[in-house]
Amino acid sequence: MRKCNKCKIEYNGNLTKCPLCQSDLTGKKTPSVFPQLKEQKENILRKLLLFIVVAIVIISIFIEYLVHQRLTATKYIILSLITLYILVIYIIEKYQKPIKMMNRYFIIILILLFIWFLLIKSKVITTFLIPILCIVILLFNSITMIVLKESYINKSFGIILLDCILGLIPLLLNILSLVTTPIIVYICTLLDALIFFALLIFCHENLKEEIEKRMNI
Amino acid sequence: MRKTSWYKLDNIGKFYSATKSNFPIIFRYSVTLTEEVDASLLQEALTSAINDYPSFNCTLNKGFFWYYLEKVSKPYQVEEEKTPICYKMYKDSEDLLYRVNYYKNRINLEVSHILSDGRGTLGFFKNIIYRYLNLKYNLKVETEDNSSIYEKTEDSFDKYYTGPSLRTITNKRIYHYRSRKKKDTTFLEYHISLTKFKDLAKKYQVTITSLIIAVWIKSFEKVMKEREKKKALKIDVPVDLRTIFPSTTSRNFFGLTSIIYDNYNLSLQDIATKVNELLKENTKKDKIQVRMNQMISLEKNIGIRIVPSIIKDIALRITDDIVQNNTTSSVSNIGKIEVNKKLSPYIKNFNVLTSTKYIQMTICSYEDDLSIGMSSRYINNDIIKNFCNILKDNNITGIMNINEEDSYEKM
Question: What's the complex ipTM?
Answer without folding.
Answer: 0.89
